[in-house]
Amino acid sequence: MSTTVTYLFDPLCGWCYGASPAIERLGQEASINLELAPTGLFSSGGRVMSADFAEYAWSNDVRIGKLTGQTFSAAYRSQVLGQHGTRFDSSAASLALTAVAQTAPAKELETLKVLQEARYSEGLDICTPQGVEAVLRSKGLTAAADLLTRQDADLQLKHDGRIQNARRLMQAHGAQGVPALVVHGASGARLVRGDALYNGHDGLMAAIAAAAA
């Protein structure tokens, strides 16, 4: 019998990128039914990339990289953080994940990893519809990219519903940020804080088992 685990995240969250290897391995567990729940933490217009914000983000990213081993490249620093005046907004990336969930659901977790690596490793744009569409097409996710191009109204409604559900879960369980997990067990749903994602696979599985009991 599998345990359903909801992953609360944002595609532009550096700590979520740091947790990517743990989430990828969790998604491979036969005993886990992993559901992705984008929270829209950095959506709704986002903010403008400024020199001060870029420096703050980079210092935080360096710390995440040292803790997790994830790559925050020079290309990311110059081509993403260095583009002052651009938007820091996860709406397009989150919408792209919903498009993949509608057209190739088995590839949604892989697509999240692809989008994160496109930004943090390759220094590519995932904050605009055009940038995200290019990433999807480069990975053969044509149906999802076509949905984005058409600006499909039904897709937007489904995406808005996912964001609302994720935010309700955060509020109901007192999640202060992302990443975080909600484990749906025999006695109800319980929060597993993001810290558990950086303590090794065995520790993570133990935390999930305890929450599911």
Descriptive key words:
single chain, alpha+beta, four-stranded mixed sheet, 10 helices, 14% strand, globular
CATH architecture type: 3-Layer(aba) Sandwich
Tally of strands: 6
Radius of gyration equals 17 Å
Shape type: globular
The number of helical segments is 10
The protein's oligomeric status is: single chain
Q: Compute the separation of the termini in Å.
A: 13 Å
Largest sheet: 4 strands, mixed
**Percent of sequence in beta strands:** 5-15%
**Largest beta sheet: strand ordering:** 2-1-5-6
CATH homologous superfamily?
Answer: Glutaredoxin
User: Percent of residues in helical segments?
Assistant: 40-55%
Q: In total, how many domains does the architecture comprise?
A: 1
Low-confidence stretches are none
